[in-house]
Specification:
Layout: E1 4-10, H1 14-23, E2 28-31, E3 34-39, E4 44-50, H2 51-59, E5 65-66, H3 70-75, E6 97-101, E7 118-121, H4 124-133, E8 139-142, E9 157-162, H5 167-180, E10 183-191, H6 195-201, E11 209-212, E12 218-226, H7 230-240, E13 243-249
Parallel strand pairs: 1-4, 1-5, 7-8, 7-9
Antiparallel strand pairs: 2-3, 6-9, 10-12, 10-13, 11-12
Length: about 260
């Protein structure tokens, strides 16, 4: 049987990629001693490859497909096809950005100021192309790591990846996490004739969410409760006619 050869990014994206596959229903098991992770699908063969090299190996046919960033596809000028945009990063399910940065107090305040200077980065080719669009010629050096500590002694500026969101988004998520403290979700089923009795028991955050089930005589009820009240409320819900009661943790409540 011919297997699909799939490249899994080794390094900073490795754990996030394995977690992404887990959410999709695939179990990938990696080992520090092997570059060939196990996967619970007999039609797939995985190989750990650094994201920086992934597009080149796909282009050459060593791999049938691989997960990498669009930045590394462009850096290698690889002729590959994008199958899907999977928006995730090392620490979040969001995009990352490459930024041109200088230390605080640097005399360089714009890209034009870097004419003839030294820039350290892993993204050499893309940086050169970016500088060319601004008419700037600089010495772009490949950085093997710890790029952020090289200015000002070893470089005048750096181009480095950053994984951030807007302050507005961060504040919203933090507030959501705070709102969820001490709260749990409760999901249950109830016959329509018992709905009023069940609702009377629930001290919902606002109003419970009620939706229909495949059986027209039954409804699904979702609500949010204080964690300390659940143990006393569940017996009362059972007495009121609720069935299939499920308690689940909450990460965020965004108002």
């Amino acid at each position: 049987m011919t297997k699909l050869k799939l490249g899994i990014p080794k390094g900073s994206l490795e754990n996030a990629t394995v977690d992404l596959f887990r959410r999709a229903g695939f179990q990938i098991t990696t080992s520090s001693r092997s570059y060939f992770p196990a996967i619970d699908d007999p039609e797939i063969e995985c190989m750990l490859i650094r994201a920086q090299e992934m597009a080149r190996y796909v282009e050459d046919g060593v791999l049938d497909a691989g997960l990498t960033g669009r930045d590394w596809v462009q850096e290698n000028d690889a002729k590959v096809e994008t199958v899907a945009d999977l928006i995730y990063a090392k620490q979040s399910f969001g995009k990352v950005r490459w930024v041109l940065a200088v230390p605080d107090g640097s005399p360089f305040q714009s890209v034009k100021d870097l004419q003839g200077k030294i820039i350290a980065t892993e993204l050499v080719s893309a940086t050169k192309r970016y500088l060319a669009t601004h008419g700037v010629t600089a010495k772009v050096e490949f950085s093997w790591g710890a790029t952020e500590v090289k200015p000002p002694e070893l470089a005048d500026a750096i181009v480095e990846v950053t994984e951030t969101g807007s302050l507005k988004d961060i504040r919203m998520l933090l507030e959501g996490a705070i709102n969820a403290l001490g709260k749990v979700g409760l999901m249950l089923n109830v016959e329509k004739i018992n709905l009023a009795k069940v609702i009377a028991v629930l001290p919902a955050l606002k109003k419970p969410t009620i939706s229909t089930l495949s059986d027209d005589d039954w409804l699904a009820v979702n609500t949010i409760l204080d964690e300390t009240t659940v143990r006393t409320i569940i017996p009362r819900l059972k007495e009121a006619g609720a069935q299939g009661i499920v308690e689940y943790p909450l990460n965020k409540i965004v108002m």
